[in-house]
UniProtKB/TrEMBL annotation:
This is Sugar-phosphatase. GO terms for molecular function: metal ion binding; sugar-phosphatase activity. It comes from the Bacteria. It holds the Pfam family Hydrolase. The lineage of its organism: Bacteria, Pseudomonadati, Pseudomonadota, Gammaproteobacteria, Enterobacterales. Keywords: Metal-binding.
Length: 218
């Protein structure tokens, strides 16, 4: 069992709180086919990265803002199969009044829609794609979240599923737990969980929490 203390929790959304990986891949595949781009080029880089940065990389000739808006509409309208990951709602309840934020490469509009539609708590602090100049894997998103919470990045624990997001968290000086996968993306990852139900939360006298990460069942 792994035990970690933290004064704040920062969470990615897609693939971390919300099961949307298949949905995201379907949307990008449709967009690629509509624009004459081989889908495999985008599917290899899309997880955890802003649509803005993907379009700039694979299709710099397109009207950037128009296609960002189009992809947002596709994410909101193509919502079948998207749900909260098991145990995610309970974890957000268990952390209680602890400072926390969602840090996502989705737009604020898409993020708020997904969290509400999945029945998850909506944080007071939400860092979306439009809130930063540089998206993941740059450190800026997690540095901004820590600053807005008023917590030192080193006292923040990040939960992330994608290599780009984990790289962003570590670059910001945060500690990171990987959600999903058999092998850690980076050696500095504190641990790996396959389910939110592997985590138990205990409040500490100084307002921080201690999280115990149990091995996966079975």
């Amino acid at each position: 069992m792994i035990s970690i203390e933290a004064k704040a929790v920062l969470l990615d959304m897609d693939g971390t709180l919300v099961e949307s990986t298949h949905n995201v891949e379907l949307i990008w595949t449709q967009w690629c086919r509509d624009n004459g781009i081989p889908p495999e080029r985008v599917l290899a880089i899309c997880h955890g990265v802003r649509s803005r940065d993907i379009i700039r990389q694979v299709a710099p000739h397109l009207d950037l803002e128009r296609h960002i808006a189009l992809l947002d509409e596709l994410e909101i309208s193509h919502f079948a199969g998207v749900s909260a990951l098991p145990g995610a709602a309970g974890f957000l309840r268990d952390i209680g009044p602890l400072p926390w934020a969602v840090v996502t490469s989705a737009s604020r509009r898409v993020a708020l829609h997904k969290l509400a539609a999945c029945g998850l708590r909506v944080p007071a602090i939400l860092i979306g794609s439009q809130d930063v100049v540089l998206g993941k894997p740059d450190a800026e998103p997690y540095l901004l979240a820590a600053r807005r919470l008023g917590i030192d990045p080193g006292d923040c624990l990040v939960f992330e599923d994608a290599p780009a997001g984990i790289a962003s968290a570590l670059a910001a000086g945060c500690r990171a737990v990987q959600v999903g996968g058999e092998q850690a993306c980076y050696g500095a990852v504190e641990g790996i969980i396959q389910s939110w139900r592997q985590i138990s939360v205990a409040s500490l006298a100084d307002g921080a929490i201690r999280l115990a990460l149990s091995p996966p069942a079975g």
